[in-house]
Amino acid sequence: MLSYEILSECGEREYNEDYTGVEKNGEAYCFVLADGLGGHGGGDEASRLVAEYILNDFVQNGKVSEPYLKKCFEASQRLLLEEQKKQRRTKEMKTTLTVLLADQNYIQWGHIGDSRIYYFQDKKLKLRTLDHSVPQMLVNAGKLKEKKIRGHADRNRLLRVMGVEWEEPQYEIAVPMQRMGGEVCLLCTDGFWEWIEEKAMQRLLKKAASPGDWLAEMQAAVKKHGSGRQMDNYSAIAVFL
Q1: What is the pLDDT of residues 28-68, one digit of tens each?
Q2: 103-126 burial string, b = 16+ CB within 10 Å, else e?
Q3: Cβ(163)–Cβ(94) under 8 Å?
Q4: For residue range 176-202, what is the model confidence (pLDDT) as tens digits?
Q5: Cβ-count burial of 175 within 10 angstroms (0-12 exposed, 13-18 middle, 19+ buried)?
Q6: pTM of the entire structure?
């Protein structure tokens, strides 16, 4: 049994450059979340373009496998670069990208940028994707504590995104996880996770009866901590497996 809920809001910005979506192929699901960069007409178009390509392709060809997940990133990257050149907007149309695939047996995900995927087992946080950002690089090098990423002066400086030409793939693909029961995944943009810490995510998950309940409680926390502080767009997809 799989259930999910999707949330995407403007925050305190005029436009929403995030894009969220889900599609199904047989018993397999594809969840996509992207945070566009480059301003209205650039970032929102970039996030929509890559996400819609992946979701549309999944309906016809999708399956939970590493080769297919790689195709999601590489084919949508080519499409975005072509559109940039067509519109002569190579500096504006960029986006983060997270993709979660799930069927009855396995879960697998990939990401690029600082939108995150959190993985919980039996309502306990087990791991999260690592941001492709300057503060995350400092954490990895032992020069910054993990808790200092939120609010860091360079938190929005990304080292890898979709829409920048690469000689070798810049996205990361996780190893497939065999489903054991009790898995929960959260895909979210930085506008969401910057205002709610992992301990609160886990605490609220333990009380939640459904993905919708969980997202509603987390959204209340996000708004409480971020309101009046130039909140970015914030989006999240909660998946109970």
Answers
A1: 999 999 999 977 779 999 999 999 999 999 999 999 999 99
A2: beeebbbbbbbbbbbbbbeeeebe
A3: yes
A4: 999 998 999 999 999 999 999 999 999
A5: exposed
A6: 0.96
Structure tokens at 49: 């373009």
Q: What is the spatial distance between Cα 73 and Cα 1, in angstroms, rounded to a whole number? A: 27
* Residue 196 to residue 71: CA distance in whole angstroms: 32
At 10, list the tokens: 């403007």
